[in-house]
Structures are given as structure tokens and as C-alpha cells.
Amino acid sequence: MAPSDTELVARVLAGDDRRAFAELVRRHQSMVRGLLRRLCAGDAARADDLAQETFLRAYQKLGTWRGGARLSTWLCAVAYHGWLSQARRAPQPLPPEPDPVRPAAEAADDRSDLLRALASLREEERAALALAYGEELTHEEAAEILRCPVGTLKTHILRGKEKLRKLLLAPLPEGSP
Amino acid sequence: MTGPDPLDTILAREPYHPDDGFTERVLASLPPRRRDRRPLVLALSWLAAGAVAAWTLPGLLGPVLRAGLAGLAAPASGTTPALLLAAVLAVGALAYAASRLLDDGA
User: Fold this and answer.
1) CA distance B21 to chain A (A)
2) What is the ipTM of this complex?
3) Does the CB of A135 have a partner CB in chain B at under 8 Å?
4) What is the pLDDT of residues A71-107, one digit of tens each?
């Protein structure tokens, strides 16, 4: 039976067990990289650099993890605050918005369009959507990471979704093929 | 009746990201391993204690070592069981310290 996250963390803290830490990285890397790709609006290289920094910071601060919260939730918080800190320090240029004349169904299937469309949202809207979808976080957990009330989180989600709906699911313009 | 919101479907779709060497890169970026200093402290303590004993008890250390060696050479004689036990413990402790030092250096 595979050891739990708690057991692996205990081994890292007790004896600097690098194999245990590698197992933690393998378990959670996809989730952390996925979250950061959304936050970075599809910039995969930047997202992976931030993901690497996330795990380095997690290694250094592993002793502050409270076993009450899931490790994945704690890692999401570390990743989000790393991204926020970098975004405030050096804002990134926005990628181009998705092509609005493409058929809705095709655009909806295109994941890169979603990631580009996320770039047009405000920081807090993008973060709310990135945390609330795809990472199995509850709204309460996402709000705690964003350090805002649940009601504010829901407002960010609604506003973000409205903008995305216009960008990704707009009806076809008249006369388009 | 309406189906699921297509936007919810798009947002909830998060593909698995294959590792592709990511874990190795993370491990390579970690700071050097913390070294357990206890074996080193133990070994140095033994050496210091030996040096102090040799310095302060020049006439005693030789006979003690000789008695210890004699005890090891003829354990069945039963003349120095305490010394034999102490020698075995000392050798064991030194061997343990040496093995830990070698492990840390590897």
C-alpha cells in the first residue's frame, strides 16, 4: 500500500528523505502545473518555472503544513501566492485574445483558446476560476487561498465566466462559414 | 430542461500533465542534503576522550589497552568481563559512527 502524504511528509521532515519528497512531487506535479498554466494563461514555460519554485518553497516550508488541510490544498496556496508575487513584481504581457469568428464548438474544444481567454480576465477572476475548477477544491478552500470571503469568490467566478462566455461561446456572426 | 453549462465543461476539463523529467528537475534544484552531525560528534568525542586519557594518564592507558586486547584475545578466561564488554561497546560505537559518516559522504 502506498504511503499517505502525511507519512511521506513525516519522512522528509525527520530525515530529509529525498525519495519521499520525489514521490510527493510526482503525485502532485500535474495538479500544480495545471493550476499554474491557467494562472499564467497558457504560458507553459513560465508556469513550469513557477511550479518548480512552488515545490522548492514547499520543501523549505514543509514543516509549516498543518496536517488538517490536504497537502494538495496547501500546495495550491503556495503556487498561487508564488504566481501572485511574481505577477505583481513583473506583470506579463497579455497574449492575444481568441479569434472571435471561429465557430463556437471548435473554439470550445480548443484548450489553448480557453487559456488565452483567461488572460483577458482580471487577476482575481482568473485566480478564482483556476482554483475553483479542475483542482477539486471546495469554494471554502479556494476562498481561503485567495484570502477573501466565499461570497466574493463566487462574484469573481460569475464575472469571469460571463467574460469567458462572450469570448468562447459567442454565437456565430452573420454570414460566417 | 437544460443540459450542463458548456462553459463549466470546458473549465472543469484539466488534462493530466505527464512528468517528463519535471520531478528530476525539482530534485536537482533542492539545496544540499542536511547532514546528520551526530556520528561526527560521537567520533570526535571518542578521539578527544582518548587523547585526554593518554595525556593525563600516561602510565595507565598502556596497561588498560593491553588488558583489553588480552581480554579480546582470551575471552574465555573470565578475568576481565567488564573490560571486554566496554571494548565491545566501544568498537561497536566507533563502527556505527564510521558507517554513518561513510553513508553521509556517499
Assistant:
1) 10
2) 0.80
3) yes
4) 999 999 999 999 999 988 876 665 555 555 455 545 4
